[in-house]
Automatic annotation (TrEMBL):
This is Homoserine O-acetyltransferase. Substrate binds at K163, S192, R249. One of its GO terms (biological process) is L-methionine biosynthetic process from homoserine via O-succinyl-L-homoserine and cystathionine. The active site is at C142 (acyl-thioester intermediate), H235 (proton acceptor), E237. The gene is metA. GO terms for molecular function: homoserine O-acetyltransferase activity; homoserine O-succinyltransferase activity. Its EC number is 2.3.1.31. Belongs to the MetA family. Coiled coil: none annotated. It comes from Bacillus aerolatus. The record marks E111 as: Important for acyl-CoA specificity. It catalyses: L-homoserine + acetyl-CoA = O-acetyl-L-homoserine + CoA. Its main location: cytoplasm.
Length: 302
C-alpha cells in the first residue's frame, strides 16, 4: 500500500530505507482513485517510534492511504518535541466534523492506573463515542484495547502478579473470520503489559468474538460482532528489538522485572532477538484495511 505522509515526517526516511512504498502528495493527487483516510490516535510516549512501526504495516497492500496523526489536547507529551506535534499532529477539535474510514488507537504505558484516573480519559471517551458514527472501523492496541473493552463493553482489567512481557504462541479460535485469513493455526506475537482482561468475560459477552488467544498471555485478538471494533491486547507492530529496549529501560529504573519470555536466544540478553511475528503483523493490518475498512467504507460519505 502506498502511504501518503508528509515529506518532512522523520519516519519517512526510515521507511524508504526499508523499501516501503511511500507516496508524495503530487503523485497521490494524480491517481484517479479514492484513498482511504486513516487516523492514528498516538498515545505512546515515544511517538516517532510508534509512527514508524504503524506506517510500516499500513504500507504493504495495493490500497492508497492518507494517514493523519492525532494527539490528546488534555495531556502534554514529554517525550516528543512541541514542534513535532505542531507540524504532524492534530487535535480532536480539528477533526470532529470529518468522517474517517479507519482509526487506530494505540496503547499507552498507564495500565496500572484506573481508567478514570488518566488525565485524558474524558477526552478519549469523547473520541471513542464520536467514532461510533464517524469512523467505519477501529483498531485498538494493548491499553487502547483495554480502554475500548471497558468503555464499549463494560469489561474491566485486572493487575497481573508480574509483567507479561515476551513472545507467546497463540491459537486461532475463529479460522473463518476474514480478519484472520491466511493466518497459521498457531502464531507468535509480542506482549508487554502489567494488566489483563478476563478471557471468560470476553467469551461470554454477546457482542464479542475471541478470535485468537494464548495459554500463557490470555486473550489476544478480540472483535465486536458488528465487525467495527478490533482489539489486540499485544503489540504485533513491535520491531525485533523493542522488547529489549523496554527491558533495558526497566532495569535502569531498578524495577522488579523478569527477562522477556521466549525472546532472547538461549535466554541470553546479549544475543540479538529474532522476529517471529512480522508476517502475521503485516497480514492482520492488511486484512483489517481490506475487509473492514476498504470493503465497508462508502466512496462518498455524504
Amino acid at each position: 500500500m502506498p502511504i501518503n505522509i508528509p515529506q518532512e515526517l522523520p519516519a519517512r526516511e526510515i521507511l524508504e530505507k526499508e523499501n516501503i512504498f511511500v507516496m508524495d502528495v503530487g503523485r497521490a493527487r494524480s491517481q484517479d482513485i479514492r484513498p482511504l483516510n486513516i487516523l492514528i490516535l498516538n498515545l505512546m510516549p515515544e511517538k516517532e517510534k510508534t509512527e514508524a512501526q504503524l506506517l510500516r504495516l499500513l504500507g504493504n497492500t495495493p490500497l492508497q492511504v492518507n494517514v493523519s496523526f492525532l494527539h490528546t489536547a488534555t495531556h502534554e507529551s514529554k517525550n516528543v518535541s512541541k514542534s513535532h506535534l505542531e507540524q504532524f499532529y492534530t487535535t480532536f477539535e480539528e477533526v470532529k466534523e470529518k468522517r474517517i474510514d479507519g482509526m487506530i488507537i494505540t496503547g499507552a504505558p498507564i495500565e496500572l492506573m484506573e481508567f478514570e484516573e488518566v488525565n485524558y480519559w474524558e477526552e478519549l471517551t469523547e473520541i471513542m463515542d464520536w467514532a461510533k458514527t464517524n469512523v467505519t472501523s477501529l483498531l485498538h492496541i494493548c491499553w487502547g484495547a483495554q480502554a475500548a473493552l471497558y468503555h464499549h463493553f463494560d469489561i474491566g482489567k485486572f493487575k497481573l502478579p508480574k509483567k507479561c512481557s515476551g513472545i507467546y504462541s497463540h491459537t486461532v479460535n475463529e479460522p473463518t473470520v476474514k480478519l484472520l485469513r491466511g493466518f497459521d493455526d498457531m502464531f507468535y506475537a509480542p506482549h508487554s503489559r502489567y494488566t489483563d482482561v478476563e478471557k471468560a468475560k470476553i467469551e461470554a459477552h454477546e457482542d464479542l468474538l475471541l478470535l485468537a488467544s494464548s495459554d500463557e498471555a490470555g486473550a489476544f485478538i478480540i472483535m465486536s460482532k458488528d465487525e467495527r471494533h478490533v482489539m489486540i491486547t499485544g503489540h504485533l507492530e513491535y520491531e525485533a528489538h523493542t522488547l529489549a529496549e523496554e527491558y533495558a529501560r526497566d532495569l535502569a529504573k531498578s524495577l522488579d522485572i523478569d527477562m522477556p519470555k521466549n525472546y532472547f536466544p538461549d535466554n541470553n540478553p546479549t544475543k540479538k532477538p529474532v522476529n517471529k511475528w512480522r508476517s502475521h503483523a503485516h497480514l492482520l493490518f492488511s486484512n483489517w484495511l481490506n475487509y473492514y475498512v476498504y470493503q465497508e467504507t462508502p466512496f462518498e460519505w455524504d
